[in-house]
Amino acid sequence: MYCENCARIVEKDRCPFCGNRKLRNPEAKDPCFLTEQDFVSSGILEDVLRQNGIPFLKKNVMGDGLSVYVGPMLDRSRFYVLYERLPEAESVVNDLFAPAEEDGAPDPDSADLPFPGEDEGAEES
Fold first, then answer.
1. Residue 38: φ, ψ to 5°
2. Contacts with 2 (C-beta within 8 Å, 6 or more apart), sequence order
């Protein structure tokens, strides 16, 4: 179902984001919320969506006035795409921002590595 207030696809009879009960079936040209990203990620996503020919609408969360005051690096952007392109756009977002899959390799941050200056295998006398 589609919530016109939030421009989100929801699976219940009530929107969990705004509480709207007046939901309807989505239409192909309905703008649908895709994701919200920080300043840097927004630029990356914008570029990749353009490369894939996916039309989108980008709205800054803070607005231009506040963004100018605090700086664009603190702003976030919400992306909307047409319902008919939503699955394709979601795939792009998942490919770009999904955490890396575990490949069974040990995490270098958690490995037992010697501290600088320690000799491996050296015994104290």
1. -75, 175
2. 8, 9, 10, 23, 24, 25, 26, 27, 30, 32, 83
Residue 84, token pair as written in the block: 């008919």
Residue-wise pLDDT tens digits, 5-49 = 999 999 999 999 999 999 999 999 999 999 999 989 999 999 999
Phi, psi (rounded to 5 degrees) for 42: -65, -45
Sheet holding 56-60, edge to edge: 31-38, 76-82, 56-60
Q: Do you know the residue count of the chain?
A: 125
Q: Helix, strand or coil for residue 17?
A: coil
Half-sphere exposure of 46 (CA within 13 A, CB side): 14
What does the angle CA 110 – CA 111 – CA 117 come to, to the nearest 5 degrees? 115
Could you tell me which residues come within 8 angstroms of residue 7 by beta carbon, excluding any fewer than 6 positions away? 30, 31, 32, 33, 80
Predicted TM-score (pTM) of this structure: 0.73
